[in-house]
Amino acid sequence: MAAAATEPEAGTKKLWGGRFTGKTDPLMEKFNESLPVDKRMWAEDIQGSQAYAKALAKAGILTQEEAKSIVEGLDTVAAEWRAGEFVIKAGDEDIHTANERRLTELIGAAGGKLHTGRSRNDQVATDTRLWLYNELQVIRKALRELIRVACDRAEAEADVLMPGFTHLQNAQPVRWGHWLMAHCASWQRDDMRLGDLLPRVATLPLGSGALAGNPFLVDRQFIAEELGFIGGVCPNSMDAVSDRDFVAETVFFCALHLVHLSRWAEDLIIYSSGAFGFVQCSDAYATGSSLMPQKKNPDALELIRGKAGKMQGNLMGVMAVLKGTPTTYNKDFQECWDLMFDAVDSLHDSTRIATGVLSTIIIKPEAMMKGLSSEMLATDLAEYLVRKNVPFRETHHISGAAVKMAEDRGCALSDLTPADLRTIHPLFDDDVAAVWDFARSADARDTEGGASKRSLLEQVAKMRKYLELS
């Protein structure tokens, strides 16, 4: 939410100003301030302050009337932010200072009691955790929608065959839906990691003070419940204000999920190229060339791929900021915010864009079938003899000899007759012709997790059950 332009105000007090008599260098003011970045946590700062005011009243530090006045005053501050009417003033170096300054303007001296026993050290950690917890739940919904779309397409298009690749070379026939569920499996792991991360993010530091704890015996479990922190409270006050693992873990999650989205995007970029023509991106997620009228570029997929690279830089940036900081709070931590906000924003956008691409992409089953060749059934040819009790190591060489025969003749492997194949091994019978069936090849891989249609539909059912139960 945009705020009004800064206006100076003489005599504005800083939360830490009592020790200092000299003026701060104006450049240092700008260098030190974080409000342009952390103002996006205005709602979480207000929510945390309201819970803390109630805890102070519960501990007998505030009267119920004072606590009510603070809570209602903060509601007014929130309304100003929501309406874009909050006026930032000189001295508002961060969101905590700005909100408390405005609260005191609204309700008077009672506003000055809100910070009793609280430090910006435990306050900023609380705001950040609360903001992240809220955002990660939104991201999880987007991630699960992507998985649902993949499941729907995999089931609806279960009969579509396509080439499978290793080393980007033709390998074996698979189903389009099997390819989709391969990426779903990585996205499921991302969802599991996110579910595991959420309680560690939603662990309460408030009540830890600057580093040594709170002297007014505020009920931290009460505050955690008020804020919906499912992870309880941070167990050590020094660690509570020092810990930024939850930021590093969040950015790692974002980086790894974008790696997975990038690999998916790379597949589709290749499959949409003229050499393949397996898929076509919808106009909503593609652009043209400024020079070549025939071009349709998969820009959405390329941007996802690019953001994955930038996200790894964000992760390294966070780790580098944290690595040299002594216990407990250090101003260095402020440098993590831009990286964290960018990571969360980029991941949320990328996941939703990926869902849009996958929902609208057009598949070309005929082109996929043209991409299949009988040479991709060379393993099936070897397996034909395995079923006649010939050791696989021997059948592998026999099949290789058949491939060479076809190459020498300049024909497809499937063009070799049973008589041709019997010159290589006597156990090739006329029924060997059944090997040259791509659907049969895929359906022969009927183990759990295999490429058969039955297995594919089972994978979809399991994924849907996971989404329902987790």
Automatic annotation (TrEMBL):
Keywords: Amino-acid biosynthesis, Arginine biosynthesis, Lyase. The keyword Cell cycle does not apply. It is an enzyme of class 4 (lyase). Residues 18-313 form the Fumarate lyase N-terminal domain. Residues 376-441 form the Argininosuccinate lyase C-terminal domain. InterPro entries: Arg_succ_lyase_C (IPR029419), Argininosuccinate_lyase (IPR009049), Fumarase/histidase_N (IPR024083), Fumarate_lyase_CS (IPR020557), Fumarate_lyase_fam (IPR000362), Fumarate_lyase_N (IPR022761), L-Aspartase-like (IPR008948). It comes from the Eukaryota. Gene3D superfamilies: Fumarase/aspartase (C-terminal domain), Fumarase/aspartase (Central domain), Fumarase/aspartase (N-terminal domain). It holds the Pfam family Lyase_1. Its EC number is 4.3.2.1. Pathway: Amino-acid biosynthesis; L-arginine biosynthesis; L-arginine from L-ornithine and carbamoyl phosphate: step 3/3. It catalyses: 2-(N(omega)-L-arginino)succinate = fumarate + L-arginine. One of its GO terms (molecular function) is argininosuccinate lyase activity. GO terms for biological process: L-arginine biosynthetic process via ornithine. One of its GO terms (cellular component) is cytosol. Transmembrane segments: none annotated. The keyword Kinase does not apply. NCBIfam families: argH. PANTHER family: ARGININOSUCCINATE LYASE. Belongs to the lyase 1 family. Argininosuccinate lyase subfamily. This is argininosuccinate lyase. It comes from Monoraphidium neglectum.
